Each structure stands twice: as C-alpha cells, then as structure tokens.
Amino acid sequence: MKTSLYLVNQVKYSDVDYHFGTFFTSPEWVSFLEKNQKATPIVLKLMDDKKIVGYFISLKIKKMGFKIVGSPFEGWLTPDMGFINVNDLDYSKAVSSIVDYIFHKLKCHYIQICDKQITTDVVTIKHKIEYTQLLKIDITKSEEEILAMFTKNGRRDVRASSRKGVRVIKVPFDKEFVEVYYDQLIDVFAKQGLKPNYSLRKLYDMVDSLQSKQESVLALEAINEYGKIIATVFSFGENDWAYYVGAASYRVYQGQLPNEALFWEFIKFWKNRGIKYIDLMGYRKYKLKYNPEITNQPRLVFQKIPGLYFGKKVANRIVRLVRKIKGLTIRKKGEK
Fold this sequence. Notes:
Blueprint: E1 7-11, H1 27-36, E2 40-48, E3 51-63, E4 66-71, E5 82-85, H2 91-104, E6 110-113, E7 128-138, H3 143-149, H4 152-161, E8 167-171, H5 175-190, H6 200-209, E9 217-223, E10 229-238, E11 241-249, H7 258-272, E12 277-279, E13 293-303, H8 308-335
Parallel strand pairs: 4-6, 11-12
Antiparallel strand pairs: 1-2, 2-3, 3-4, 3-5, 6-13, 7-12, 7-13, 8-9, 9-10, 10-11
Helix pairs in contact: 1-6, 4-7, 5-6
C-alpha cells in the first residue's frame, strides 16, 4: 500500500521555525551558500493534516543545463543539511514527498541529500547511495573521560602541547583571522604539492554572512612564545552538534604541537556550551589519535534522468585526477 505524501509548499526562509535545526540549516549559512555558490534557496514546508511537521532546506544550482537541488552538494564545505524536524517528522514519508515535489513541481533533474537523521532503511523510493565517513566524538562525558577516550598518542600530545609554550586564544571570526588561516592552509597543501581546493574569496563570503552569528562560531589561534600565530582552527556549533570545519598550521612549528592544543580547547569550548557531539568533518589520518567513532553516513541521490549520477561520478574522478597530476608536476619541479 502506497504511503500518502505530506503536503509540500515552497516558503521563504523567514517563515521557518529554525530553532530545531543545525548550524548548516541556519538562515546565515544558507545566505552564504546563496552568495558564494550563486545558488537559489529552495525551502519546503511539510504539513500533515494542517500541522507543520518539518522543513526541507536546500539550494538549487545549474550545471551543464541540468537543475540540481543540493542538500548539500560537493564543494559547499557543508557536511549535512536536509530536514528540520519540528513535530515527529516521518523521514521516509518526508523524503518521498520532497522528491515528488522537486521533480514534478519545480521541474528539477537531480537531488542530493545528506542528513544525520536519515538511515538507508527509511527510503522507500528509487535512489542511489554514496557514503561519507562520519567521525564523531561524544563530549557529554567529563573532560577526564573524554581525554581518556583518546589514543595513548593523542593523550600524550594534548598534555605535551601545554608544556611547549603555546598559548591558545579565542579571536573574532573575521577577515584578518581567515587571511592568517588561509596562509597556513597554503602551507598544508604545499606539503602534498597541491593548492587549497577553495579560495580565500569563499572564506571572505563566509565571514560576511556569519557576522550576526558569532555566538555559534569559534575561531582559535595558537601563538608561540615569540608571539607568532603558528596554527588556527575555526568551527561552528548549534544545538546538539559542533563541526570541526577548518584547521591549519605552519609545518615548521608542528613540533610544538599547536594543533593538539587547539583541538583540546575546541573540545572544551563546545562542551561548556552544552554541545553533545563533535563532527570532525571528514576522514584524515591525524584525527584518529582522538579515537572518534567512525560510521558510514549515507548521501542519498535521486535522478529524474537516467545517467546523471554516473555522469557526476565521472566528472568527480576527472577533477581528482587533474589535481593529482598537478600535484605530481609541482613536486617534480620542486625536486629540480
């Protein structure tokens, strides 16, 4: 028996009861993506018998003539978006409802959704699944218990960082901060013979959009005994989740363990703010010293035209190959 759909209507973000959402479904973040990606916000209200049960937050872009709705999409520095659950939202019913609306009412061709609340077993309509690795740390425990969860090397490095003469300070998330961060990021990528995969312009747009949301943004600098800023971190947090968005440092100072000092301050800050979980935003080997819980987070894909998903995968592989070739070329030049 086919499940009846929710009533779906497109609304303005000003009509959304946002307080049930995450940082990445906030109006400020949507505004950033609208500006930086030249995307059009698509906000859908879901109703069941005249009762609002939730909202779907997404943006529309156009690529190769195809209309794509991302919630989120690659390159947005956004790990998840999806739904705002207002009143016992049925995710299976919600996914079916918004896919039907986006394909038939909005005439779009491709939809991509990543939402921590959606598991693969709830989706009953035809779809494809990609997986991203979610590295999660539960910070509802005491600081001593959190530190004890780290690996032996992780605990050692966090403790040693405090003896290396490194100070950690909280600073405004502004253009001055992101300029320092980006300079360090260039040094991080140079180690692999690469350039950062996003521009400083993206960070400027982010700063502009988040000026009114500083209470949900954390920017930290690690300063050595000579007053040099040797590492930086910025992160976002709201309701249950905080996200480890950007971390960078100068290679020459890594022996002073500034990244470890920053990470521990990052954990303590969000714990004191009542955050429950940390999303480390992507697999990196160095993050394993903090012993995160690693799970596969599904990304749901719906295509109105067969072959679009395959075409996107091919395009992504080409981009990765080009970056790899450029990296090899840069390294060879450096060896001469």
